[in-house]
Amino acid sequence: MALFDGKKGLILGVANDHSIAWAIAQEIMRQGGECGFTHLPDRDDDPRQRNRRRVQQLTDPCPLAKFLLPLDVQSDESIAQLMHATADVFGRVDFLLHSIAFADRADLGRPTIETSRAGFKLAMDVSVYSLIAVCHAARNVLQDGASIVTMTYFGGEKAVPGYNVMGICKAALDAAVRYLAYDLGKQGVRVNAISAGPIRTLAAAGVSGFKTMYRRFAEIAPLHENVGIEDVGGAAVFLCSDLSGKTTGQVLYVDSGYNILGISEPVDEPVEQKQEP
């Protein structure tokens, strides 16, 4: 019997096949879990916006992908419609993955001190409040003992050059995880976060200096290896499953140990990285 046999849940945040949310969904479906997916709404005024088609190309071949619906997390009506549709298909859900964050490229690319007021509100609304709004709307479709997992980053704890306003958002997201874990604990629902090392995703492309950060990460991290989306997928399977039944309000690091360092040792010569099998 697979780990997620008979389990059903929502996957929010798949953009393409490089998305962390897609890697997590694949691992869950491999373990027998049924998943409902969302995509960013397409825009009629911009034919380049083909969000549904990109995600549908991934979900259509998967028998355990049960539906694909648009979701605008800045709209309470859109969130409510998703939950009504989820209840119609699944009844109640056992897990919910929130892998959603956004900041205007102009604000993300400038020093934090120069963040615009409008840009700050937008980043916090999409990257932080969306988790609160989704949890609130999902209360009636969550099974007792259900698990909610979101994605955070070390830049919410320490200053990471180039991460700027998104670092503030992740700090707020970490706090939201703890308070939501407290509120939903009465229902037996767990809320946790995964803090992954730098991974080449669509979102990472907007972070200034990401390529340099990614290259040096394996030189500095204790395991001397970069993190892959499959590593995050495995951690999420643990947090979304009954294996983590008494774990809530926590941040699970999947970063080759980078977060334990107080200061990195000087790198004179590149450290030989472990070869992928």
Q: In a nutshell, what does this entry contain?
A:
This protein has 277 residues and is α/β, with parallel strands linked by helices.
CATH architecture: 3-Layer(aba) Sandwich
Fourth CATH level, the homologous superfamily: NAD(P)-binding Rossmann-like Domain
Structural class: alpha/beta
CATH class category name = Alpha Beta
Query: What's the alpha carbon Rg, rounded to whole Å?
Result: 18 Å
- Looking at the structure, the CATH topology is Rossmann fold
How many helices does DSSP assign? 8
Instruction: Tell me the domain tally.
Output: 1
The unreliable regions are none
Sheet-strand content, in percent, reads: 15-25%
List the secondary-structure elements in sequence, H or E: EHEHEHEHHEHEHHE
**Biggest sheet character:** 7 strands, parallel
Instruction: Report the strand count.
Output: 7
Distance between the termini: 28 Å
Output mean pLDDT.
91
Q: What shape does the CA trace take?
A: globular
State the helicity in percent bands.
Answer: 25-40%
Strand order of the largest sheet: 3-2-1-4-5-6-7
Structural key phrases:
single chain; 277 residues; alpha/beta; Rossmann fold; seven-stranded parallel beta sheet; 8 helices; 7 strands; globular
Could you explain how this protein is built, in words?
- There is one protein chain.
- With 277 residues, this protein is an alpha/beta fold.
- The chain has one domain (8-257): NAD(P)-binding Rossmann-like Domain (Rossmann fold, 3-Layer(aba) Sandwich), CATH 3.40.50.
- It is 38% helix and 16% strand.
- The chain has eight helices and seven strands.
- The chain has a seven-stranded parallel sheet, sandwiched between helices.
- α1 links the parallel β1 (8-12) and β2.
- α1 (20-30) packs across α8 (229-240), α3 runs parallel beside α5 and α5 (117-138) runs parallel beside α6.
- The chain starts with 7 loop residues before the first strand and ends in a 23-residue tail after the last strand.
- The model has no long low-confidence stretch (mean pLDDT 91).
